[in-house]
What we know:
By secondary structure, chain A is mainly β. Helix content of chain A is about 0%, strand content about 45%. In chain A, the strands form two sheets. In chain A, strands 1, 3, 4, 7, 8 and 9 form a six-stranded mixed sheet that branches. In chain A, strands 2-6-5 form a three-stranded antiparallel sheet, with no helix packed on it. Chain A is globular, with a radius of gyration of 13 Å. In chain B, the strands form two sheets. In chain B, strands 2, 4, 5, 6, 9, 10 and 11 form a seven-stranded mixed sheet that branches. In chain B, strand 5 and strand 6 form a beta hairpin.
Amino acid sequence: QSVLTQPPSVSAAPGQKVTISCSGSSSNIGNNYVSWYQQLPGTAPKLLIYENNKRPSGIPDRFSGSKSGTSATLGITGLQTGDEADYYCGTWDSSLFYVVFGGGTKLTVL
Amino acid sequence: QVQLQESGPGLVKPSETLSLTCTVSGGSISSYYWSWIRQPPGKGLEWIGYIYYSGSTNYNPSLKSRVTISVDTSKNQFSLKLSSVTAADTAVYYCARTIFGVVNYYYYYYMDVWGKGTTVTVSS
């Protein structure tokens, strides 16, 4: 049981847009910054978004992040087959005083 | 470009201690936090803990009694020890460079460089 809640799976057609939600509480998402990670099959996670909506160098602007209250959202536009991966949200929990992750969302590009 | 490489035994017997090392190349271990994360087969990510280059640590409460993370700045390495392992500790173990801080009471914690991961199986 993960502290942060993500949908197990989402799907969309190539070229379309998809959003992945991440729900938490005031002790984590509500009062801290959220990061997102992409894990392609058989590889290590890769940082996609940090501090809610910032992209590391090299991450295309097709990927975006937002936060409202105790929820965060990852958006991906112009879907490509290469975007098929597991996506995880993560943040610091100020009550538990450690890092919490969502359970992960598997993106399928149909 | 900073790179991280995990190393250690791929097979550990139940009740023994799992020991892994992460070697940092292409940059200094100083001035950063460093994390260990694991992923059981077919499951999601679990944060194990972090160490600051100066040696301060913080661990996942569910593992705290069994975990020790240490750093050797002279070798540009940090290490993980997990004692009294069981089959539930079978996972891919990742090390990662970590950015951690607080601004206006809001914490930010993210892992910007990851190792490729190493599979550890607990079995007799």
